[in-house]
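Researcher: Re-running this chain for the archive, since the previous output was lost when a drive failed. Same request as before.
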Amino acid sequence: MQQFKPLSEKLMKERLEPPAGRARLLIDTDTANEIDDQFALAWALLSPDRMEVEAVTAEPFSFAHHREGLLAAERAMDAGTESREDLVGGFQGWINRLRTGGRRAAEIEFVGTEEGMELSYREILRIYEKLGMDHSGKVFKGAGRYMQAADAPVESEAVEAIIDLSKTGDPPLYIAAMGCVTNIASALLKAPEISRRLVVIWTSAYPSTAPHCNRPSLNLVQDPIASRLIFDCGVPHVYLPGYHVGAQLKISRPEMKEFVKGRGDIGDYLWRLYDNNPLHEMFALDDTARRTWVIWDIIDIAWLIQPDWVPTYLTHSPILDKNLFWKRDPSRHLMREGYDVQRDEIFRDFYDKLGSLAHPAS
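Model: Regenerated structure tokens:
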């Protein structure tokens, strides 16, 4: 792997302090993956008092890594045997729901990484348009695939945008990572000197103290090489676990109807997304009107708006081993890690900002 010059402990601690004023922000997002990124991007753009969104970069994404496990679980169920489960909620539950609808695992279609990136790029533009905001020169396409080696960056417009923005303006440039970190890791490999000018805020996986395999985390498992690099390279990193910190950020259909629907074009669009979540069909979820949904990625924006809403502490960056378990090493560099959220305060702020866009009464 590229040899990165370590930051001094003083500079690392300075970078890991919560932002004192208006943050410079680049959002790196797999916006078309499900529906949470759209909420996060809209909230960030509606919070100019706390952050300036200087760029938004599209990430690759794919659920194709589930195919083998899903097919194996179906074969095992057909044979009356057990299979490995590395999906939260389990492959067996997924298959049972498919069977209820008369479907087989082989019928599930997964987009590829390049298509996922292209879909995310178009979705970013759509969010800007729904907000009536200009996106000229601010939105960039990212990698069309994941990293294949720890010394091989994947070139893209996003990589150049990350490098260019990190070298201009006053540091730090915050990067809110809302998916796989291929673009960010590639930029760091190509220009390792930018690590001292960045703060990467990333939500994924389990707390670094957890004994669990991190394979269930989509953001981490898609590109384990890039994921490992973020923890190893020494870039200032605010790590916000998804399980079960961000997982508390659930929203219900009644809340969507009461506080989101009718709040401008963006509110109506988020309402439609909630009612037509692409993961409902993929995972064959039923009774969706009574299900909540996790809006994971708003945790990054919440920490920037009000750090107290996402309590954190300083700890040592863990090692992500080859089997995607954490290993602790107190000699490693520092990072900041989240351990809880103030769910209600976060959504109240989001609702308030959407409320300013409410359609006038007819």
